[in-house]
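Protein modeling request. Please complete all fields; requests missing the sequence field cannot be processed.
Requester role: graduate student
Desired output: 3D structure, token encoding
Chains: 1
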Amino acid sequence: MPHYQGDEIYTRVGENLPPNDSEGWTVHFIERATRYWIAAQAGQKQDELFHQGTASAWSWAAPAEFIRWFSDGERRYGTSLWRLASVPLSPGEAHPDYGRRKVWREGLDVAMKIKGLQGHKGIEWVKVEHPFTAISPEHEVHANHNEAQSSALRRRASAYRRRQNLYAKRVAGLQRVLDMQRLVHNWVRPHWGLEKNTTPAIAPG
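Delivered output (205 residues):
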């Protein structure tokens, strides 16, 4: 069963604007088992950025029969995915006790771990699952692999080292850096979490 995780990181682009006004946000997704870096979209932290990143990842994930789709605390991942992967229940599937008519596609399990809830588990299933879909255990709902990927990206890409004068000057430049990092991550550098000499692109065959 594929696990897909979404996350976002931030850097400066051009002028040193407040984070909410900056175009230096990056939305990206990875497949948990293979560590394959599916999509990375740079821009301003608005609905369109989340929709573009989610649509790219969903085009990769959609053929799978069973999908776990987890993110960290940002509801717009779920909102964007709902536009792509929600379906109406047929009369034979909609039991009166279920009380829902539109749900996630069968086999799709969508949840997020909410940050900053001290003393609480902070796990929330986004929207309503299909009645025939099995729900993941709470301990499985996390985006730790993507958080690790974000930390590695900050180390490896000078555009994210905000204490230097190497931060991205334009969104196109930041996107170019992301595309190059994805190429190296997926095809060139063996990943420590996989078998020896195995890159994320080799792992799924």
